[in-house]
Amino acid sequence: MPKIGMRDLRRAQLIDATLQTIDQSGLSGTTLATVAQRANISTGIVSHYFGGKDGLLEATMRHVLRDLWEATMRRRLAAKPEPRARLRAIVAANFDVSQVNTPVMKTWLAFWAESMHQPTLRRLQRVNTRRLYSNLCAEFEKALPRAASRRAATGLAAMIDGLWLRGATTGEPFDTKAALRLANDYIDLLLDARAKARTRKSA
């Protein structure tokens, strides 16, 4: 009988091997055999746990998305209970080291491309998009009218994705400080404009 916890350990080992294989060989060079070789186990075991390459990529992306969710929750809980700080925490989570290291960035890029063809991956992408939008809306709505908060959330989500994509495709180490500075400036611009408008109305 397998040892207690062996399944989770084995899956984690194979997901890590998948990330490393995509980093080194790209998605086209990532097969059950290449992942098994990197993990130093049989191809049959990889097939047993994930079924095939699609299942392997799905499991890997669920792992990456879980890391993103955990980073978001951790940073939001640690932030001051006010919109600006919480919004900055959400931004920081999207540029967390778990999301901007080279293997994960290459896997994200592969995932986005494959999600246009694989329904299961497309659903994962939609869940992630809705989660980010919902989190941003929840914080913007504490400072802006409802319609304005939705526009702000859409704009900030697009900026996060754009900054991440640009950084991921440079071939250089990700400049987290620059990305945070630009995204946080956008938050400040929106919230400060609202604060000034309120001041004018009350004057």
UniProtKB/TrEMBL annotation:
Regions recorded as binding DNA: 31-50
Membrane-spanning segments: none
Keywords, ordered alphabetically: DNA-binding, Repressor, Transcription, Transcription regulation
PROSITE patterns: HTH_TETR_1 (PS01081), HTH_TETR_2 (PS50977)
Pathway: Amine and polyamine biosynthesis; betaine biosynthesis via choline pathway [regulation]
A Pfam family matched in the record: TetR_C_6
SUPFAM superfamilies on file: Homeodomain-like, Tetracyclin repressor-like, C-terminal domain
GO molecular-function terms, A-Z: DNA-binding transcription factor activity; transcription cis-regulatory region binding
GO terms, biological process: glycine betaine biosynthetic process from choline; negative regulation of DNA-templated transcription
Domain HTH tetR-type, chain residue ranges per copy: 8-68
InterPro entries documented for this protein: BetI_C, DNA-bd_HTH_TetR-type_CS, Homeodomain-like_sf, HTH-type_TetR-like_transc_reg, HTH_TetR, Tet_transcr_reg_TetR-rel_C_sf, Tscrpt_rep_BetI
Function, as annotated: Repressor involved in the biosynthesis of the osmoprotectant glycine betaine. It represses transcription of the choline transporter BetT and the genes of BetAB involved in the synthesis of glycine betaine. Repressor involved in choline regulation of the bet genes.
Name under which the protein is recorded: HTH-type transcriptional regulator BetI
